[in-house]
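Re: that backbone. Tokens:
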């Protein structure tokens, strides 16, 4: 029996009493992935990206481990909810226009002490001030550095379009604006190098493309390390009591941790290891989060149909954004239909061994987005479900 076949047998036994569709997290794999992230971070703390987990119980589990500290959140409403739930170090990774949320933040000492908000424009400071509604608490602020690689005089850009603050001088100028402004305190800098951390450099069947990605990433890492170091020095000249400099992501943990200027690493997808994180030379994770769909039809030889399945990931639409059938091995989508809204046909010889009601296990493409489809996660240890915990959705929250 292959390792994957053994996993399938375990998961089927563990969830025999549960009706599919369902989602599970294999805790042994989850914990092993957490340990590997800590190893790669080489002593620097890891701030957990909540968008990649979206389950309070699992956020608590990983933050109880040595090597993890703090949460990187994705909306202000989520940040406030987490802070009210007892998480006392929440960095909002994206600017917000949530006026009601800012009023709540500025009016509550506990929330103001626990949540740090992201800015990259004076206009965002104006919005926060206008939204205070009489709240006088000091708002903790983090500046975001644009990490994109710019080539040929800026005519070519590699990386996400995030912050407009690309140069150390631009970052320092906004730092001075924060320092001059009552009601704000600059405490951090963040830079997410998605073109390094979120792009696989070993794409199966594409050796030339993979080589090109590795060359790009090597150049991007060198350029960013120098520029980020200069930016941190420039900002510390304005705000010498800066508390943290955050960088990285699952795919770049060890590289970002090697930068002297960086004090902490962000990571989250590496806990679940969805399929988009299979194609890296720098690490190999264990798939920890899966979902199962039930067989409801047997249209013919070499074919079954499962209920549901159309769970595409965000980003540029393409095959890599789709879930993939994982267990039993050897199933594939019908190219005429793909993953369907209500039903999904699957082809391959393993289909002939599946009966009505059997489970087919899938891997999704992007980590936390799976939790937008399911109210609960079944936590598996060995061949037993030891707990069933709510996702954000299961707790009544869909923040985006």
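Recovered sequence:
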């Amino acid at each position: 029996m292959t390792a994957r076949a053994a996993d399938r047998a375990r998961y089927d036994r563990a969830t025999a009493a549960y009706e599919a569709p369902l989602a599970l997290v294999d805790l042994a794999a989850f914990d092993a992935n957490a340990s590997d992230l800590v190893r790669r971070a080489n002593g620097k703390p890891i701030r957990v990206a909540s968008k990649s987990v979206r389950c309070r119980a699992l956020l608590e589990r990983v933050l109880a481990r040595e090597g993890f500290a703090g949460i990187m959140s994705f909306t202000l409403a989520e940040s406030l909810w987490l802070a009210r739930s007892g998480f006392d170090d929440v960095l909002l990774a994206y600017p917000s226009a949530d006026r009601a949320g800012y009023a709540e933040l500025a009016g509550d000492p506990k929330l103001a002490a626990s949540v740090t908000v992201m800015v990259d424009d004076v206009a965002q400071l104006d919005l926060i001030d206008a939204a205070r509604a009489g709240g006088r608490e000091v708002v903790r602020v983090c500046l975001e550095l644009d990490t994109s690689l710019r080539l040929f005089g800026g005519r070519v850009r590699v990386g996400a379009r995030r912050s407009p603050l690309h140069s150390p001088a631009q970052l320092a100028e906004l730092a001075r604006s924060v320092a001059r402004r009552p009601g704000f305190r600059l405490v951090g800098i963040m830079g997410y190098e998605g073109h390094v951390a979120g792009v696989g450099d070993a794409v199966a069947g594409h050796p030339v493309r993979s080589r090109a990605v590795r060359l790009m990433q090597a150049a991007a890492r060198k350029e960013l390390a120098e520029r980020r170091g200069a930016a941190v020095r420039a900002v510390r000249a304005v705000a010498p009591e800066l508390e943290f400099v955050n960088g990285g992501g699952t795919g770049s943990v060890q590289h970002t941790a090697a930068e002297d200027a960086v004090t902490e690493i962000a990571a989250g997808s590496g806990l679940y290891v969805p399929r988009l994180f299979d194609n890296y030379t720098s690490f190999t994770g264990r798939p920890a989060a899966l979902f199962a769909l039930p067989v409801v039809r047997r249209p013919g030889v070499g074919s079954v149909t499962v209920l549901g399945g159309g769970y595409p990931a965000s980003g540029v639409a393409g095959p890599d954004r789709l879930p993939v059938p994982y267990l039993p091995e050897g199933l594939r989508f019908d190219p005429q239909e793909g993953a369907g809204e209500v039903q999904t046909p699957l082809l391959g010889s393993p289909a002939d061994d599946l009966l009505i009601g059997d489970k087919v296990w899938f891997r999704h493409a992007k980590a936390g987005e799976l939790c937008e489809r399911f109210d609960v996660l079944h936590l598996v240890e060995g061949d037993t479900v030891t707990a069933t915990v709510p996702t954000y959705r299961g707790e009544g929250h869909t923040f985006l």
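DSSP finds twelve helices and 19 strands in the chain. The mean pLDDT is 94.
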